[in-house]
Amino acid sequence: MRILRRYFSTALLAVSMLGSACAAGGGSTDRSGLALGTICSIRILAGGSEKALDEAFARLTAIEATMSANQSNTVVAQVNAEAGGQPVAIPEDLAYVTGKALWYAQLSGGAFDPTIGPVVKLWNIGMDGERIPSSDEIRETLPLVDYRAVAIDAKAGTLLLEHPGMQLDLGAIAKGYAADEVGRILVSRGVKAAVIDLGGNVKVVGRKPDGSSWRIGVQNPFDARGSYIGIATVEGDYTVVTSGVYERFFIGEDGTRYHHILDTRTGYPVDNGLVSATIISSSSVDADGLSTALFALGLRDGLALAETLDHVEAVFIDKDKRVYLSSGAGALFKLSDPDFSLAD
Prior knowledge:
Layout: E1 4-7, E2 12-15, E3 29-35, E4 38-46, H1 50-67, H2 75-81, E5 88-89, H3 92-107, H4 117-123, H5 135-141, E6 150-153, E7 158-161, H6 174-188, E8 193-198, E9 201-206, E10 214-219, E11 228-234, E12 238-244, E13 248-251, E14 257-259, E15 274-281, H7 284-297, H8 299-307, E16 312-318, E17 322-325, E18 333-335, E19 341-342
């Protein structure tokens, strides 16, 4: 089978930074590297030092070594290997992120589910060997997707997947946690202003040295990377995270696009008319989990859920280039691309 691949980094890039006053010493301090399966970039605009970057990237490496489902020697890999067997001792950060994932699974009625791992492995989208699994394979695998069968023992510090064959996959939330951790480290090391971009999960820290607002572009899901439909303008510590059909996908022989956000009910890529869901919030771990959860829920239910949450705003884009905003998003996000229209 001939399969065409196309990859986008995730949907966001911090913009309007380069003209800012920079870090102490007359220039910004920045670094990029590969971690968590993506390109991670940190730019310090005020305060801090190379040591702050060293510590931040060391933390990213440590999070990957704990939470990656795509490496054989991580704690998550050990949890998956022991599925249906013995509880596995886990560090506090893994317990925290798994707990967050289970919370959003419950909140979304299972539309977001961190036990989607067995179905993810069937498709392997964005990895070597990506393919379209048979309907029989999907039908046999779907019963393993059940967030209610994840047992965390906070007192013992253990985690157990209750059924053999289950797999934990935190790929839809771990980068958000990592962005929050990097922000915490930078602030603790005296950083006054910074932009963190973990494969498109964007978090801004502090206030820009020139006193202006942070401006973060929301990617045009139908165009090349770096093309924006509009700008989110925020003050202080904020994060903007998008989930979309254009991030990782392949195109089958029949021209069908198979993207990486899988429907926990059907085992196939979510197909609900949306092309992206963007969350604007103060917490990146929450924004990361919610962007996937709300996308999977679809426009009506996703928007309804967003309206129940404090300090969370959402921007949805559908396949007809209509843009839908949560009630408070209009104060933060301004549409600028005339090819798109704001829905009533």
